Amino acid sequence: MALILGLIALNLSRSPEWRRFSGERLWALLVNASPTYLVAALATTLSSYLVRAYRWGAFLDPIKKSSLWVLFVGQILGFSSIYLVGRPGEFVRPAYIARKVGVPITSMVAILVLERVYDTVMLVMIFAASLYFSALEPVAAGSGAIRTHLDEAGLVMFIVTTLLIILLIYFRLRADALRPRLVNNLRFLGPGGQHHLDHFLHSFAEGLKVIHSSKDLAASIISTLVLWIMNVSVIFFVLRSLGGELTQLGWLAAAMAVFFAVMGLAIQFPGIGGGYQVGIILALTELFSVSVEAATGAAIMVWIMVAAPCLALGAVLLIHEGLTFRKLKAIAEEERARVIDE
């Protein structure tokens, strides 16, 4: 996916539209953005971290109770780390929460995996809905082929996600029987390695207990739906704030942009984003025939609305917690080592 998006970005940069790119038009678009819609985007972004914290609590509830505040701080610090250092910062969130709540890090890793599954399922559903209900007209040469590839990508994601869900449910229900079988089949790890693997699988199964709790399962599903409605709404508000041709695009168009943006995370660059913005630009220019200035302005503004409030609040919470990003990184590395040692 990273290679594909890279080639697409290279192709876009060589297109006639990009050769006519106007920095002045882009600047005018950004400085004239509607404050009302930007405030709505900002509020939605910050609220989404609260929803993430609530969902994490639903996942964690069968293992141990935790305050919503601790989980909210964990979300902010975790995503701030990702925005600053890229993918290596992903372990900050489970590591911080594991330390604060006093639960095994392996259980937090299991919850992180479960969170990814929920998000992928919801992303596929939003993608399918936007394809089905959105009036996606052939706006450029080859857009018919793009639509075909989108359909194929959605089908592949649906199949892979369904298989992953089945495997996770099967492992949770049959963990006691599967664990010794898996450990015995991996004798080459040695007694120590087999012990660590057995401990990890046990903790991982504990982290999947939410599958057995109908109340927490319902809470996690509903909160995931709300979260992704909010994620799409952030882009929708940004499109409305910039005005002009972008006001022609509805909520489902914003949903398509979200799908492309998430796919672009495969080539995220620390501190500056990258693939996320490329995905948004690609969706707006290739699918909806938006000018490159407007698409670029939207991509820049979305990144500001998503990353800036998280980083600002993250800095405040670091001071409140008596931490620094260096200490936070050290905590994550210690917990990562514990996963390996266990």
- Give the strand line-up of the largest sheet: 1-2
Biggest sheet record: 2 strands, antiparallel
Mean pLDDT: 77
Order of helices and strands: HHHHHHHHHHHHEEHHH
Envelope shape? globular
What is the number of strand segments? Answer: 2
Number of helices: 15
Tally of structural domains: 1
Give the fraction of residues assigned to helices: over 70%
Radius of gyration: 21 Å
**Parts with pLDDT < 50 across at least 5 consecutive residues:** 1-12, 14-22, 137-142, 268-273
- SSE class: mainly alpha
Strand coverage percent = under 5%
| End-to-end gap | 33 Å
* Assembly state: single chain
In short:
The protein is mainly alpha-helical and about 350 residues long.
3D structure, described in words:
With 342 residues, the protein is mostly helical. It has one domain (2-341). Helix content is 79%, strand content 1%. It has a two-stranded antiparallel sheet with strand order 1-2. The longest helix has 31 residues, at 143-173. Residues 1-12, 14-22, 137-142 and 268-273 have low confidence and may be disordered.
